[in-house]
Amino acid sequence: MVRVALFVLMLHSFVFGVVDAFNRDIVVENPQNLVFVGSGALRFGVYLGLEDRIVGIENREKRDDMHAPYNIVIKNKKLDKKPTIGEGGSGKLPSMEALIEANPDLIIASAMSKDQVKLIETKTKLPVFVISYSSSDDLSENNLKTMKQSLMALGEITNSKDRAVELIKYMEEQEKELRSLPINKKSVYIGGVNYKGSWGIGSTEGDYLPFSILGIENSLVDRSNKHVFIDIERILSVNPDVIFIDEGGRKNVELEMENKKDFFNSLKAFNDNKVFWLLPFNFYNTNLDNTFINAWSVAKALGANVDLEGKKDEIYRQFLGI
């Protein structure tokens, strides 16, 4: 009996950690107060419904910008009124002093190097849990797997695993439905994709995740290329049947349309009314919700019978609760 009691006591005294994206075993018991730093970190916190536990956010996240749908939740939950823990943005570290002042139980970080994470831990004496949007080979389908793994790990360490399981299951159901759709295999191109800012029609993705989910490819750029800027004359040389344009680059593309009318009038897709606008794919990392909406939009443009507004409402409700 004494041995059993001792064994139970030993089990209770042993705390299991959660492995983060840097393959580190992070041990934090029941973290209540959280901050999210780095490109895309807060988005995952919103996806898991952790808004009420957030004690500070980056100034970058306080901007009213509909290119990132989770910004609606930031406004609705008044997270923009929380203390600022740094400017945010590509390559920018948070304010160590502000982090110490916020005093979270756990910092969740994305898009940072091991040295940067170590610096934050050393300066603040606070634990950092790393999540990721990118796989080692950076192929879109593997990136999606990495995002799911990070959502699950974040769910485990924040005691919101049930929500993570629910969301991942939903994504996998969406993938299965999308892959089963009968679509016309036409030549396609995606332009205007955001990459550390907004660009024109020559800004594209060789391995565009909504295309990959549907089993189609960018007709101008090989899948081995992640993001590339191409000479727009190449678009005319291939002259794809269907052109998709990211809303994130709308201003730039519309300016190009005004200044290069002969070029655009020579494109088959423009003459055939086969040009479609898609929701912003990248904005402070990947908009996972928009990724699936865009996949449905592409499928509809290629002949699938899709209630696009219904799907859009459903996906935002599943990811954001709105």
Question: How would you summarize what this structure contains?
Answer:
The chain is α/β, with parallel strands linked by helices. Helix content is 43%, strand content 12%.
Sum up the structure in keywords.
322 residues, Rossmann fold, alpha/beta, four-stranded parallel β-sheet, 14 helices
List the helices and strands and how they pair.
Layout: H1 2-13, E1 18-19, E2 25-26, E3 34-37, H2 41-47, E4 54-56, H3 71-76, H4 96-102, E5 106-110, H5 114-124, E6 128-131, H6 140-157, H7 161-179, E7 188-191, E8 203-205, H8 209-214, E9 227-229, H9 232-238, E10 242-246, H10 250-259, H11 261-265, H12 268-271, E11 275-278, H13 288-301, H14 308-320
Parallel strand pairs: 3-4, 3-5, 5-6, 7-10, 10-11
Antiparallel strand pairs: 1-2, 8-9
Helix pairs in contact: 6-7, 7-13, 13-14
InterPro entries: ABC_Transporter_SBP, ABC_transptr_periplasmic_BD
Protein name: ABC transporter substrate-binding protein
Organism: Campylobacter blaseri
Coarse morphology = globular
Domain module tally? 2
Approximately what portion of the residues adopt beta-strand conformation? 5-15%
Going by CATH, what is the homologous superfamily of the largest domain? Nitrogenase molybdenum iron protein domain
Largest sheet: 4 strands, parallel
Could you give the order of the helices and strands? HEEEHEHHEHEHHEEHEHEHHHEHH
